[in-house]
Amino acid sequence: MPDSISSIDELPLTDLIKGFPPGHAPVRLGEVGRQGWNLLREDLPLPLAVLKSDVIDANSRWMAQFLKASGAIIAPHGKTTMSPQLFRRQLADGAWAITVATVGQLQVCRRYGLKRLLLANQLVGRRAIAHVVSELARDPDFEFYALADSVEGVAMLAAEAERQGLARPINLLLEGGIAGARTGCRDLASALGVARAIKAAAPHLALAGVEGFEGLIHGASDAESERQVGAFLDFLVEIAAACGHEKLFRHGPVILSAGGSTYYDLVAERFAAAGLGETMVVLRSGCYLTQDSTAYRKAFQRIRARSPRAAGLEGGLGNALEVWTYVQSRPEPGRLILTAGKRDLSYDLDLPVPLAWHRPGSAGAPQPIPAGHEVVALNDQHAHVRVPAASPLQVGDMVALGISHPCTTFDKWQVMFLVDGAYNVVGAIRTFF
Amino acid sequence: MPDSISSIDELPLTDLIKGFPPGHAPVRLGEVGRQGWNLLREDLPLPLAVLKSDVIDANSRWMAQFLKASGAIIAPHGKTTMSPQLFRRQLADGAWAITVATVGQLQVCRRYGLKRLLLANQLVGRRAIAHVVSELARDPDFEFYALADSVEGVAMLAAEAERQGLARPINLLLEGGIAGARTGCRDLASALGVARAIKAAAPHLALAGVEGFEGLIHGASDAESERQVGAFLDFLVEIAAACGHEKLFRHGPVILSAGGSTYYDLVAERFAAAGLGETMVVLRSGCYLTQDSTAYRKAFQRIRARSPRAAGLEGGLGNALEVWTYVQSRPEPGRLILTAGKRDLSYDLDLPVPLAWHRPGSAGAPQPIPAGHEVVALNDQHAHVRVPAASPLQVGDMVALGISHPCTTFDKWQVMFLVDGAYNVVGAIRTFF
Q1: Which of A54, A127, A185, B332 is the most buried (most CB within 10 A)?
Q2: How large is the ipTM?
Q3: Is the CB of residue A189 less than 8 Å away from at least one CB of chain B?
Q4: How far apart are CA A231 and CA A228, in angstroms?
C-alpha cells in the first residue's frame, strides 16, 4: 500500500484508463512528462481533460497573496480534485490542512501520507466512525476535525471513542446552518445543546470551533446573496461567542471555518472582525486552483468587484481546465457533434463552452472559437453544438471546451494531463473518486 | 496486461476505491463474495452502490425471451456499465457483440478478450483510427464495426487503412439521422453519397449495414414519439433498400441496427418487416440488465403496454440498482440530509427516489420508505430530502435510493457490489470509465 505522496509517481498508467493512448505500453505516472506527447499533434486520444500548468501556478500565487493579505488560512476542499499530487502542491503553498467530504476521501489522503484533515461533514456509520477512531489511536501525528450538528451524532462518536479506549479526543466543529438549506443547527439554542453535549463527552470529544457553509446561498441578486451571507456569518460568530462565554471550547485558538469558492473574501473579512480573542480563520475553497470558464469565473469577477483587498492583488485566478474533443459529424450546416458528453465534463451548473479549435496538421496555436458556436445539449458521450453555417469547423477538427464547476469534471477523469502553453504534456495527475 | 475476461477476478481492490472498507487489507475482485460482508450489518461504508443479483438474473432471462420471440439479436451498449464482467454475462446469455461509444471503451473490451465490437459512433482522430486499424491487422479474430455519416470521415478511415496496408476491410454501418438531432445523414441523397464513398474505398472499407439511434426522439406524447420513431425506422429501411438496389453492401446479410432501451420493441418489429432479404437485426439496449427506478422503469411499462409480444412474456425487467446512504443530519423536522450526492448517483434525467430504510442493529429486512419522503436537491456529496414531520428516520439510519438512468450512476463507481435478497455481498463488478 502507498504511504507517502511521492509513491504516487510510481503508479502505472495503462490504456484501461480513459485518455491514455490505446495500445501504448504502460507508463508510470511520474514518467508521463518525459514521453514527448503533444495534444495538438494528436499524440493522445480525445476526449481528453488537460490542466494548464502555468495557470495553476498563477492561481496558486494569487491565493497565497490573498491569504497573506487577509490573515486567513486555508484547508482547500480536496473533494474538488481528489488528487494527492494537487494536495501536495497546496500543502507546499502553505495550506493548513486538506478538507474532505467523506471517510473514503479521507482514506485516500491518509494512504498518501496526509496528517491534518478536516472532514467537512458529520461522521456517521459504524465502519466510518470505527475507522477514524482507530486511525486516531494508531497514529499520534494524525490530526482530525469533523462537524457536529446533533446530539444523536455526538453520542455515536463518543460511544465509539469509549469502546476503543481512545486516549485523545475527537475534535469537532459545531456546525451552524440555514433554515431550508443543508446540515447545521438552525438556531443558537440547538447549537448550544450540541456544544454542551460535546463538552459533556470529554475526554472523548472536544469542541475545536464553529463551522458553516455559505456557498448554497443564492439570493435574488448579488447584493441580496451577500447580505444573506453576512447574516449567516454573523450567526456563526454569535454561536462561537456563546460557546466561548460558556467555556465549551477546548484549550487553544478557536477555529472559525466557512468559505467555499464564491464568498471566501466575505468570510475572511467577517471572521477577522469577530472579536472573539484568539481564533484561526480557516477557508475551504476547492476550486481556486483550476477555476473554470463559467460559474467560478463569474464568482471571481464578483469577488474582485466587491473586495478592494482582492482587487488590489497582482494577477488573478484564471481557467486552467480544458476538455478537448473532435468534431465527429457535421450533419447539418448549422450543427456539429463533438466526441465528449456527460461522461467527460460538468453539466450540473451550465453547459460547456467552446473556447478554441485546431485543425490537425496545421501549424501554430489553437484558434479562438469564432462567434456563434454554442453547446446546446449533451448526451452521455456527445455534445451538440449550434454553429453558424459559415463555421470553418469540419469533421476531424479539434475543439477545446471550457467547463462550469471543476468538481464535476475532475470526477470524470482518473488521469488528467498537465500541459504547457504549447500543449506539450509535462506531467499528469491521478484522481481518486 | 490482462488479456481475458477471467483475469479480472485477480484485480486487487484497496481502500483507495470508493465503497471499499477503509483500513481493510486489499481483496481480490474474485474473492469479494467470500468476505462474509452484509450491507445491513454496516460491514461496508456508505454511500454504496449495489446490484441485486437475482434481479439481474431475471432481467437477463426476460431479454433472452424477448429476443427469441422477436428474431432480433443484441449487441448491448457497453457504455452503460463498462464492466467486462457484465459483458461476459451478456455474451454468455447470447449477445452477438458488445457495443461501445469510444475507442477507449473499445480498448477496455479488447484488453479483456472481447472479439466482436460495434463502435456506435464515427471513428475520428489520428490515434484512435490508427489503433483500430493496427488491431484489425494484428488480430484476425477481431471483428469490428463503426458508423459513417460523412464522405470526409470515410476518407480518413480509408487513408489510414491504406497507409498501414490493412489486408481486410474496415466494416462500416451507414448512419441515418434526424434533422436537429445527433449524428447521421439527414436525407437519402447524402446517405447514398456516403455509401458510394465507402464502396469506392474497397478493399479498405466495406458497407455492412445501416444504423440509427431513435432514443433521442421525444414527441409531445407517447403516441407522437412512437409515430416519429416509426418514421425514422422507415427512413433507415429506405436507405438500406436504396443501398441494396445499388449493390453497395458487402457480401452477406445486411445489418440493420437501432434500438436504445426505450423503443427496442418497435425497432425489432419494423426491421423484421423490412423485406430486404437476408438481414441481421441488431438491437443495442444497454440498460435492460439493471433497469432503474424512474426513467427506464417507465419506458419498460410503455413497452409492455404497446407490445403484445413483450406483454406476453413471463416475468419482466425490474430495478437491480440501489445506492445506500446514511442520514447524517435532520436539521429540521421536515428535512433530512443524506450522505450521497452528484458524485454517487444520476441526476441528469430525474432526482433519485428513496426506496427503503433500515435502522442499524435492528433485525429483518429494510422497511419500505413511508409516504412523503422526496429528494428535492443534490449537492456534490449530499442529498436533501423533504420528509413529513412524523418521519421515523433519524441520524445514523440507512436509506436506499433508486436512480434514473443507469449510465450516469455506473460511471460514478469503480466497484459495485452484488448482493443477494438479504443484502449479503455475493460478489463485485469492476467498471472502467
Answers
A1: A185
A2: 0.97
A3: no
A4: 5
